[in-house]
Amino acid sequence: MAVRVKLGKLHCTVTEDSGYDTAYLTWDGVRIWRERMEENWDKDVGVVKEISRDARVELWDYDWPDEDDNLGGETIRTGLVGLGTQRARFTGDEADYFLEFEVIPVWDNVGNFPKTVDIVADGDRLYQRHSTGAIYQYTGDEHHPWEPRDNRQETADIVADAGLLFQRHKSGAIYQYIAGSGGSWRPLPAGNFPGTKQIATSDGRLYQRHDSGAIYQYTGDENHPWENLDNFPKTVDIVADGDRLYQRHSTGAIYELVRSTPHTWRPLDNRPETADIVADAGRLYQRHHSGAIYEYTGSGWRNLDNNPAVVEIATGDGLLYKRHFNGLIFGYTGSTWLLRDDNHRTAKVETSGGHLYQMHDTGAIYRERPV
For residue 182, what pLDDT is reported? Predict the structure, then answer.
C-alpha cells in the first residue's frame, strides 16, 4: 500500500535553547529540512514523501560543538490515510513543537491531453472527450495508453454503462459504438431530434432529454424505437440508476419514474436550493447550492454534509465522493468524510468499477492507486 505524506506547518511553542533553536527534521534517520525557529514561529516544511510502510519523523536541535538534542519523534502510519490534518508532537528536553501532516492516497497520471474536456467511466473502461469532439478509450498499455474511438467536431456528449458507449451530437443525433475490428458507430433509428440536449444510460437502458423537457427511452424496436416517458417543460436533468430514472426540475423538484404506470412520476422532494442529483446502486443523493448534501432514505432525506465549499458530488459502486471548489476530493465512509486528494487543479471526479478518477483543468487525468 503506497501513500503520500505531506509535511506542513512546524510550530514552535517553546524552544529547547534560550533565544532560538536551529531545528531540523529527519525522515527514517535522514535529514530532510532545517530552519531557525523561535517561540511562536511557524514554518512551512513543504516536504512530500511517498511510503509503502510506516515511517519515523524526528525533530532535532543542532547544538555544535555539543551533540545535537533529540526533541522527540513520531511514527507516521500508512493507516492514517484520508483522515485529514494530523499533528506530531515533540516535547523532548523541555521543548514544545508540533508538526502538521496529512496522509493521502497516491494518484497515477494516465493522460495529459490539453484538449480533454470530459471523462466517463464504465467499470474498468475509461473514456475521454476532447474539445475537438475526439473520443479516446484508455487501454493501460505502456506505449499506447489511449486508443481513438472517434473524431467528429459535432460530438457534444458521451455516456457509457454496462459495456455500451454512446455519443450525442450538437444536432441531436445519437450514435452507439460497435466494438470489433476497427470499431464503428451506429446511428440509432429516429435518434436525431434537434431538441435533444442530454443522454443518460444505465444497465443497458438509454434515455434522452429534450430542451422542451420531454424524456424518451430507447426501446430498440425498429418501428417504435423511442418511448415517451414525460413532457414536463421544467425538466433540466435526468439521472439513471439501473431500472430507476429520476428527473430534476428548474425549481429544484425531484421526481422518480413509476414503471408500473405509464407517464407517472413520484415526487421525492421540492427544494429550490437543489443544484444537482446523482444516483447509483439504489442510492440517490442531492447537492444544494449551499454545498449541503442529502441522501434519500425512501421516506425522506438524510443530511450528510453542510460544507459551502462543495461544488460537485459523484457516486459509483455504492460509494459517494465530493469535490470542493479548491479541488479537494473527499470520500464518504457512511459516517464521516475522508480526504482522497488535495490537488487544486481538479475540475471533475468520476468513479466506476472500484476506480476513482479526477480530471484537471489542464486536461490531465489521474487514477487513484488502490490503498
Answer: 76
Plot region of 309 (φ>0 → left; ψ -120 to 50 → alpha; else → beta): alpha
Grid-cell match 444505465, residue found? 202
pLDDT value of residue 18 = 87
* Cβ atoms within 10 Å of 146's Cβ, excluding its own: 18
**Which pairing describes strands 319-324 and 235-241: parallel, antiparallel, or unpaired?**
unpaired
Instruction: Answer left, alpha or beta for residue 213, where phi above 0 means left and psi between -120 and 50 means alpha.
Output: left
Angle at 258 between CA 253 and CA 260, to 5 degrees: 165
Residues 6 or more apart whose CB falls under 8 angstroms from that of 142 comprise none
Question: Residue 258: what are its φ and ψ, rounded to 5°?
Answer: -95, 105
Specify the pTM: 0.88
Contact 27, 81 (CB under 8 A): no
What pLDDT is attached to residue 262? 86
Weakly modelled stretches of the chain, pLDDT under 50: none
pLDDT tens-digit series, residues 200-256: 999 999 999 999 999 999 999 988 999 999 999 999 999 999 999 999 999 999 999
Task: Give, in degrees to the nearest 5, the angle at Cα 150 between 147 and 152.
Answer: 145
Closest CA to 99 of 29, 28, 33: 33
pLDDT cut 70: percent of the chain above it: 99
SS (H, E, C) 44-89: EEEEEEEECCCEEEEEEECCCCCCCEEEEEEEECHHHCCCCCEEEE
Separation between Cα atoms, residue 106 and residue 112, nearest integer Å? 17
Distance separating alpha carbons of residues 40 and 35, to the nearest angstrom? 14
Per-residue 3-state assignment (H helix, E strand, C coil) for 307-365: CCCEEEEEEECCEEEEEECCCCEEEECCCCEEEEECCCCEEEEEEECCEEEEEECCCEE
| Cell 413532457 sits on residue | 231
Tell me if residue 174 falls in helix, strand or coil.
strand
